[in-house]
Amino acid sequence: MKGIAAGVLFAIMMLGVGTTYASSDAGEAISNWFHQSFLDRSCEIEASAANEMNASLKRIATDIQNSAQNAEEQLTDSQLKITSESERTIENHKNHYIQQLQAAKENLKKQNEQKMQLYKEQAEAREAAQISKDAEAILAELLKEQN
Questions:
Q1: Whole-angstrom distance between the N-terminal and C-terminal Cα of the chain?
Q2: pTM for the whole thing?
Q3: Cα 111 from Cα 124, distance rounded (Å)
C-alpha cells in the first residue's frame, strides 16, 4: 500500500507541477516586470526632474533678487552721481554769479566815486564862484561907498 500511496502522491505532484508550468505565461510575467520597471524608472525620472526644476526655480528667484538688488544699487549710485553733479553745477553757477555781482558792485562803486568826485568838484566850483561873486559884490559896494 505504501507503493500505491507513493505513486498517487507522485502523480499528484507531477500533475501540480505540470499545471503550474502550463498555466504560467512567461510573456505576461515579462510584460508585468517591464511595466513595473518602467513605472519605477518613470517615477525616479519624474522626481529627479521635479527636484531639478525646483532647484532651477530657486536659482532663478535668487538671480532675480540679485539682479533687482544690483539694479537698485545702480539706480541709487546713478541718482547720487547726478545729484552731486547737479550740486556742483549749481555751486559753480552760484560762484560765477557772485563774481559777476562783485565785479558789477566794484564798477558801480567806481562810477559812484567818480560821480561823487565830479559832484564835489562842481559844488566846490559853484561855491567858489558864489564866493567870488559875493566878494566882488562886497568889494563893489565898498568901493561905491568910498567913492
A1: 210
A2: 0.45
A3: 20
Sign of the CA dihedral running 55, 56, 59, 61:
negative
Task: Give me the percent of the chain exceeding a pLDDT of 70.
Answer: 86
DSSP of the chain: -HHHHHHHHHHHHHHHHHHHHHH--HHHHHHHHHHHHHHHHHHHHHHHHHHHHHHHHHHHHHHHHHHHHHHHHHHHHHHHHHHHHHHHHHHHHHHHHHHHHHHHHHHHHHHHHHHHHHHHHHHHHHHHHHHHHHHHHHHHHHHHHH-
With cell 567913492, the residue in question is 147
How confident is the model over 70-126, as pLDDT tens digits?
999 999 999 999 999 999 999 999 999 999 999 999 999 999 999 999 999 999 999
Q: Which residue in this structure is represented by grid cell 500505491?
A: 4
Report how far residue 72's alpha carbon sits from residue 9's, in angstroms, rounded to the nearest whole number: 90
Nearest CA to 19 among 7, 11, 27?
11
Measured CA angle at 102 (ends 98, 108), to 5 deg: 140
Q: For cell 510573456, what's the residue?
A: 27
